[in-house]
What we know:
Elements: H1 20-44, E1 48-55, H2 61-68, E2 77-81, H3 87-90, H4 96-99, E3 108-112, H5 121-124, H6 130-149, E4 152-160, H7 163-175, H8 185-190, H9 194-208, E5 215-219, H10 223-241
Parallel strand pairs: 1-3, 1-4, 2-3, 4-5
Helix pairs in contact: 1-10, 2-10
Amino acid sequence: MSVDFANIDPASTPDAPGDEAATLAATEALTEKLATLQERLYAEAKQSLLVVLQAMDTGGKDGTIKHVFRIVNPLGVHVASFKQPTPLELAHDFLWRVHAKTPAKGDIVIFNRSHYESVLVERVHDIVPKSVWKQRYDQINAFEQLLVADRTTIVKFFFYISKVEQRQRLLARLDDPKKRWKFNPGDVAERQYWDKYIAAYQDAVNKTNTESAPWYVVPANHKWYRNYVVSKVLVDTLDRMNPKYPERDVSGVSRDF
């Protein structure tokens, strides 16, 4: 079913368990369960989870990683960030640099931006012609299906904030000396392309939203709600994956050591 972003209020909190306080409490419980499930996934080492985070600048990708994964075992959770491609990366196909970062068995990998930049930034700024980026939707679907066939579960999130909320977050970075290091003047320049980015995101979601690699469009003006949704989806997903601690025969092990 197609998603129309015009029908989504970035400030809404659908299916939240209550107000902010109640939602924070529910998120805390989910965080504990996520840590347990992640430990089982790592111990089992037979399947993996790929979490894709996409958003406009200031949309909350870094904050989500910091808060949602704050008590998981760092041995089994890794973050891959995709910035402007290097000359070496540009000399290969657009998925070359991505495939090497996908999770090994037992791991959770979080993509902070991802292969979707090739149908977002490169489309909005006309870096490649339409004939190139348009065929990438099918290539992305095939790539993700390959991962799924090898027992990698994929969940993808787009954090949908309003343009007004983005301005407030940019100003907060500018005004707070402790946050100023995160301020990038380029983020302000990109605001002139807001409508083009939203159109590109909507196409990307609708053309690559598959049963095996679903998209979740999260109203993300409220950070506490965003963190709750991500935590809930990840716990539900890992529950379905049902990782188990491996059996180990210790019957012949002496306890006299």
